[in-house]
Here is the input.
Amino acid sequence: MNHVVVGNYNINPFFYHYFNSNEEWLRRPEQPLLDYVLDNIPSYIATIINFGCANGKDFIPFEKGYNLIGFDICPVDMIKWECKTDNLYYYQCSIEDYLDKFDHSNLDLEDCLVYTQGTLMYLSREYQNKFVKHMIDRGCKNIVLHEYAHDSKTPHEKLYLGSEMLKNFERKHFRPAEVGPPEQQPTGFLKIDYEKYK
Here is the structure.
């Protein structure tokens, strides 16, 4: 695995279990959401970029056939990887630093699928919108955000995209009812280039 340190960060100890947990639910990819993505991913996608990749569990469905790029704030040697790392490029980099300091010249987003899982909700509203706008402006046509919606009935932090930004996404719920009612679960915000490959 290749890795680059863009910044060093103070990590709230609460988040450590996302990087090196033995809890089964933190070692499995987010399904059925990622099954849906795999069923609908355009054929031209070459790279999966996961912002907030944690232990890499959500890379597991993409280990064969895709380049994998992960961004998170944990030092690489503190992560207990759940995915294969021979095809993974890891950046120790916050989303804020990705937007404000990162050299984007070598990262073509047109053939990428960008994914977040409960990550954007920890950003300010300004950076949530700045992040999505950046992806769209740089030609990314495939974005999957699995976050708690601003209108969800949950105590978690939430995603607050402006109404113009939200128009780019369809909303779907993927977690089964036995986990809890949809309004208390993360929402899939999906921008997938369905027509491109049909």
